[in-house]
Design a protein that fits this description.
The protein has 188 residues and is mainly beta. Helix content is 3%, strand content 40%. It starts with 20 loop residues before the first strand and ends with a helix. Residues 12-46, 60-94, 106-142 form the DNA topoisomerase type IA zn finger domain.
Length: 188
């Protein structure tokens, strides 16, 4: 009889070429990789804890493997992924859409538009649609307010008091902070 605590060897074999799989490490964590690499590129992620929770099975099929899709709750919110995960890594990311009226001219390159984007960490920001040529980004939603210094069209609303609103110009060459009296806004 073998002890539960005695070491035992368990091998998995590559479904592509039949060679032994071995544990390897990358910046994304541990995975099983084929010993036949680079001739065989099979790999299987090793995840000890689930990084998502299945909310609902969907009737739509995965375009990559043909299995059903599932609505899942992950670290950065809801997403739709394949039910065959980790064998199939298809994910349909929800893209936040701006309404057509919300177009902001880029103050840096003067050619592109600032559009709402999401970082790999789930944070929202506005970046120029001419990226990588233009690297303009701001972390808050801009408003149309003319800067008295550089006459730029966009500013960030920084503070509201009883008597005035404070703005900061989004032009990276200006970034001036200025106040607009609330009474003068009512008359305009």
């Amino acid at each position: 009889m073998t002890s539960l605590f005695s070491p035992h060897k368990q091998e998995e074999y590559c479904p592509k070429c039949g060679k032994v799989l071995q544990i390897k490490q990358s910046k994304r964590g541990l995975f099983l990789g084929c010993t036949g690499y680079p001739e065989c590129d099979y790999l299987k992620p090793l995840r000890t804890t689930s990084q998502f929770q299945i909310i609902h099975d969907l009737p739509e099929l995965c375009p990559k493997c043909g299995e059903n899709l599932q609505l899942k709750q992950g670290t950065y919110g809801m997403f739709i992924g394949c039910s065959a995960y980790p064998d199939c890594d298809y994910v349909l990311h929800h893209q936040v859409q701006e309404t057509p009226s919300e177009k902001y001219p880029c103050p840096l390159c003067q050619k592109g538009q600032l559009v709402l984007r999401r970082s790999r960490f789930g944070k929202s920001f506005y970046g120029c649609d001419q990226f990588p040529k233009c690297k303009m980004i701001i972390n808050e939603k801009p408003v149309f307010q003319t800067c008295p210094d550089c006459h730029g069209q966009l500013a960030l609303l920084k503070k509201i008091t009883e008597h005035h609103r404070s703005f900061q110009c989004v032009n990276p060459h200006c970034e001036k902070t200025f106040d607009i009296p609330i009474e003068s806004e009512k008359h305009e």
